[in-house]
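tokens incoming
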């Protein structure tokens, strides 16, 4: 019997998560998260598993969608397929107490990496990383990045986290113009842009 794309995708995701779990088994370090990043990039190479019919470009007034495709029983190792129109941007922010990896299937983003200064709430720019097919960016827990889409191609990226959005804890967002930081949790906000397709 022919296996559906959905089932093949599920099998590929589970296999990827198992390999990442092995990479991060001892502790989460720069070296181990880099190994995990390679595994997510390998999944992105299987473009046929992520057709636009399953992860369409947003419409009807929406500009971005997060399709939640995998989560383990304790809401760790959580994977989202991000579909967005060109022009999306996020100011500098962290992901609370979760690590994060973003890899590209289609489209290009510029991820600006920051660090928080020891005696200030300001975020200090470090470098820019271009995330496009064949590349990815990874962040340790507390890592700060800003995002700006580039080009005219809609985005189809994989966002992989150590914890699902709802339990990442308190995030910090930074205003680089004023040097101020604000704290928020995602359950304070409208989460209608997240679509649960876990089965």
């Amino acid at each position: 019997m022919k296996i559906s794309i959905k089932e093949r995708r599920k099998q590929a995701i589970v296999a990827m998560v198992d390999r990442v779990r092995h990479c991060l088994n001892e502790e989460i370090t720069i070296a181990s998260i880099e190994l995990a990043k390679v595994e997510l990039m390998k999944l992105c190479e299987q473009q046929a598993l992520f057709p636009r019919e399953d992860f369409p470009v947003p419409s009807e007034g929406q500009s971005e969608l997060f399709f939640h495709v995998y989560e383990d029983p304790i809401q760790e190792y959580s994977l989202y397929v991000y579909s967005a129109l060109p022009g999306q941007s996020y100011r500098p922010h962290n992901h609370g107490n979760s690590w994060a990896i973003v890899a590209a299937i289609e489209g290009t983003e510029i991820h600006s990496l920051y660090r928080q200064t020891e005696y200030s709430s300001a975020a200090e720019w470090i470098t820019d990383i271009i995330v496009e097919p064949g590349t990815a960016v990874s962040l340790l827990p507390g890592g700060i990045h800003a995002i700006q889409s580039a080009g005219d191609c809609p985005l189809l990226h994989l966002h992989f986290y150590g914890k699902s959005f709802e339990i990442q804890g308190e995030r910090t967002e930074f205003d680089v113009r004023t040097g101020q930081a604000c704290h928020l949790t995602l359950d304070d906000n409208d989460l209608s842009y997240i679509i649960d397709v876990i089965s």
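note: The mean pLDDT is 91.
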